[in-house]
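Loading example: each entry is read as two labelled lines plus one structure line.
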Amino acid sequence: MTAVTSTGDRQFSHRRRTKGPRRPRLALTVLLLGALYCLTPVAWVVIASSKTSRELFTTFSFAPGSGLLDNLAALGAYGGGQFWKWGLNSLLYAGLGAVLSTLVSAMAGYALAKFRFRGRQVLFSAILAGVLIPGIVLAVPQYLLLASVGLAGTHWSVLLPVIINPFGIFLCRVFAVASVPESTLEAARLDGAGELRIFTTIVLPMMMQGLVTVFLLQFVGIWNNFLLPFIMLSDQDKYPITLGLYTFLGKGAGDGDLYSLVITGSAVAVIPLIILVLVLQRFWRADLLAGGLKG
Amino acid sequence: MPATSSGRRPGLRAVATPWLFASPAIVLFTLFLIIPIGYAIYLSFRGFRVEGGGAFGRRVETFVGFDHYAAALGDPEYVAGLGRVLLYGAISIPSVLGLALLFALLLDTPRVRARGFSRTAIFLPYAVPGVIASLLWGFLYLPSTSPVTYLARQLGAGPLDFFGFPALYFSLANIALWSGVGFNMIIIFTSLRAIPTSVYEAARIDGATELQIALRIKIPLVAPALVLTGLFSVIGTLQLYSEPATLRPMTTTISSTWVPLMKIYQEAFTNDNLGGAAAASVVLAVGILAISLLLLRFFQRRTFGDHT
């Protein structure tokens, strides 16, 4: 892909010289400035994580330091390995939560897209309304309700509420309409295949590209979620990484040593997620999102 | 209905199948959306009143009507929080969407180099959680670690205050811009790519410049994507919480009730005033819903008016 476009650019660049070369160069400059703006804080945190707490406050921000290994060791040792526990918790909440959420959304989206049944319109309207409902009305009553059944403060309290994702259902419906042909379903039914079998062996594979998008959106959404675990959890061992780093900073307000731990922790927390997004970017179907409103 | 399942057993199975597929979603939707919303509304009308009078009066939970709503809307701190969020949104939403549109249009301009790199680099902050984004920028703002302040000092200027009165709003909006511009850019860019090139081939042959094509053809055609991104920006912005909460230890400018959500959290968990917290959440949610529906109605008429 990239190779093709770059040779294409080169062919064009001959013509460009005759046709006013200024505009694309301006566009390039603005784009590169945008890229620089977006990469700078990430570069900063990676560099800052290599500094000892003394270097952090005395040397220039973008000068690398000499304390990377010490910082990593201190981070790992903090609270008896709490930091790594937070990372695993985040992985559990975001990974399992996003898988379950995608499956539930796929089933509901398929039902809404491919079956005509009484109550379908009501159900779909409710889902659409759910997309617009701000999470804040939910947080406090969700806590109280989960507390009343003894689930507040457990892993479940952070996992269960994120499985339902109205926007995911909405996207899955759009995608099922577009990618699952009626005739295929008819043929499978004539062959005597059960509905569950049709869903798992025919519908799910056909919807896979869209499902990856829904999964990614929900994974990043859960990983970034702050308010829900903040309200639900009190035991630090169950914290996800965002909440852990937040409490770190709160403690470190007057303490330079904790600052460098927070910075190293942020760097370590950001890198795997960036790699995930870079790797999965190719499966990302943004047209699904862009087309969403027309559906 | 019988048309979909041709023949053998059209009865129960055909009727039950879609409901079975939708049932996990329906159960979870009921448990984690409908019931909490109902409960929040119920709580917002309940409260404690002292009965019996004197020192031995009992606190009894009763229906208190709109007392909590009156209290929330009469609370200067809550109303100030709403104002702060609106001011923040007025700065951050136009800059996020404007820059996202600009970058998307630039990426879609023919003959531009380094497109793949720029697109990936600008999208990258999407992967950084809001709390961590706030931490990163917080350290870039903090006088003792900020490279900007460092450079300013080298040049002989005093330290820059990123947490002062108008500056704080721009500092927060900058975090939103950094985190959000790439995601919105991708959505707008994708809907630009979906436009068949034949649409503007003709304009190009007629000698229209890329700028004219962008303004007159591309922007009107991606209006639906702009409405979608705008809607999500509004919903996200008004629920501002983790960014100011994360920056709070770094500055004294951000109070413990700086935005409505912080106030709600404090009412619920520190002051044990669940009714007040519920009423304040309902007010905020209704406000967000009203603004998003207005936006949707306004733009839908303008962008889809011809088709529907």
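Chain A touches chain B through 105 residues (CB under 8 Å).
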